[in-house]
Amino acid sequence: MSEARFDLVLVNGRLVVPEHGEVRATVGVTGGRVAALLDPGARPPARETIDVGGKVVFPGVIDAHTHVTLGPPDGWFTETRAAAVAGITTLLDYQLTSTSYVAMYPELRRVADSRACIDYGVHFCPSVESHLDELDTWVKDFGVSSFKFYMNFRGGEGAYLGVAGADDGYLWELTQRVARYPGAVLCVHTENIEIANRLQSRLIAAGREGLEAWEASRPPVTEAENVNRAAFFGRRASCPIYIVHMSSAAALEEVRLARAAGARVHAETCPQYLTHTLDSPLELLAKCNPPLRRREDVDALWQGLADGSIDVVGSDHVPRPRAFKSGTTWKASRGGPVLSMILPVLLSEGVHRRGLPLRRAAELVTLTPARIFNLYPRKGTIRIGSDADFTVIDLDLERQVTTEALQSFADYTIWEGQRLRGWPVMTISRGRVIARDGAFTGEPGWGRYLSRPVSNAPISDR
Q1: Which of 7, 25, 245, 263 is most buried, by the most CB atoms less than 10 A from its CB?
Q2: 33-38 and 119-124 as β-strands: parallel, antiparallel, unpaired?
């Protein structure tokens, strides 16, 4: 018997490499990284050979927008397990506090390193003056090179998350500070809360309830105006801006106008804004922030994905149970469990229904988030030296969505009962199969923390 040349060999796959398109090749893996791309007929000796039977193989999917600890007592395990089953090999999680991130970082790493099932990184959310002084430490010592500012957190708006609010003066200084680090990016929640508060007061006084009332309190103008302002600040400060969870045609138009004016603006949307509208019978179960919009907004977002105006599909995953959705429209929890639906929505509603090219679908969830958030070329591609992360997809598999199969801590999904076509059937993280046919086969603690430096220096495994 020949001595094993590789740890793992992946054969008979339709590799979708976003930089090049569809590639037929045998992939050799050694030490958790891609070691060779060989002729598709090659069958070199290996400790393990996996024949994927002609199925599509993406680079490991990246979810750049999660909140895994908002709800579950063991979110770093339960939600990264759900991510693995959903074909996701890397996630970037938003961490929120009004106290010191420097002080919280050791405990964050201790818990996440011991419980995460997939590789992970974090974004920090500056909101108080002391955070501005810590930023240099975040970048240089922790490898955190992306940050989030909530434009809506003014007054007590962020109190439910324990996060202080800040004003435009703070945002302006923050854009200038982030711009000092080439490659760093400022993520922005765009929502003019002053308009929203005025509208909400009137709607409450009128006794309005439901998703339509929630959307009326935060109409597209609140999102679009803040996109305009954030992009303006970013352009003047030479700071890249990343618009999170974009929901409306109006906001998308402002992104296009900002780019035409010279701003470096990235845009993200989420599966819920690509499938659901404000007339959903799910009512408060589908309450999110920004709100669900109208059918014309859904169509505009799909067009933005197709023409390149929208760069990334992330989840904004909030895994609280349905009990948090009780009460009035104005008190019920915002957001919900989403990460499991990134691929099924993109494939079923995008590739199959709207003709979105498979290569474009891969770009949105692999290459582009990796490039924006300083993970490329370690993540987001299939090339020699990259991590051996692969998401194997059965494009023709049709499955009915069930909460149980998604394996999140959350006990519901707004896609319950829907039949979607195109599902991940195997997830490989650094050369190891961690999910197969809907079953989790990995273990807590497998995931590694991803330091994301803002230079071309080699990426460490710290």
Answers
A1: 245
A2: unpaired
> Rg for the chain (alpha carbons), in Å?
21
Cis peptide before 357 (omega within 30 of 0): no
Average pLDDT of the segment spanning 311-326: 97
Question: pLDDT tens, 234-272?
Answer: 999 999 999 999 999 999 999 999 999 999 999 999 999
Q: Quick one: tokens of 324?
A: 């948090």
pLDDT score recorded for residue 461: 39
- Give the whole-angstrom CA distance, residue 108 versus residue 105: 5
Helices (H), 154-219: 168-178, 193-205, 211-217
3-state secondary structure of 401: coil
How far is residue 221 from each of residues 53, 62, 199, 286, 382, measured CA to CA in Å? Answer: 49, 30, 12, 21, 40
Task: Find the length of the chain.
Answer: 462
- The yes-or-no verdict on residue 318 having pLDDT over 60 is yes
State how beta strands 61-66 and 419-429 pair: unpaired
Paired strand residues for 101 = none
Both ends of the chain: CA-CA distance in Å? 37
pTM, whole model, 2 decimals? 0.96
Q: What angle, rounded to 10 degrees, do the helices at 295-307 and 249-260 form? A: 30
- Per-residue pLDDT, 2: 62
Residue carrying the six token digits 């009128």 = 206
Q: What is the DSSP string of 27-39?
A: EEEETTEEEEEE-
d(CA 94, CA 124): 6
Q: Is 241 exposed, middle or buried (0-12, 13-18, 19+ CB in 10 A)?
A: buried
246: left (phi over 0), alpha (psi -120 to 50) or beta: beta
Helix (H) or strand (E) holding 257: helix 249-260
Which of 122, 130, 64, 70 is closest to 315 using CA atoms?
64
- Name the residue with tokens 């989790």: 440
3-state secondary structure of 33: strand
Reduce the DSSP state of residue 29 to 3 states and report it. strand
Neighbours of 283 (CB within 10 A): 15
Whole-angstrom distance, CA of residue 139 vs CA of residue 145: 6
| Full set of structural domains in the chain with CATH | 1-462 (3.20.20.140)
Which parts of 152-264 are beta strand (E)? Answer: 185-189, 241-243
Q: Which residues pair with 37 in a beta bridge?
A: 27
Over residues 36-70, the pLDDT tens digits come to 999 999 999 999 999 999 999 999 999 999 999 99
Picking from 294, 186, 165, 287, the residue whose alpha carbon sits closest to that of residue 234 is 186
pLDDT tens digit sequence for 123-150: 999 999 999 999 999 999 999 999 999 9
DSSP 387: B
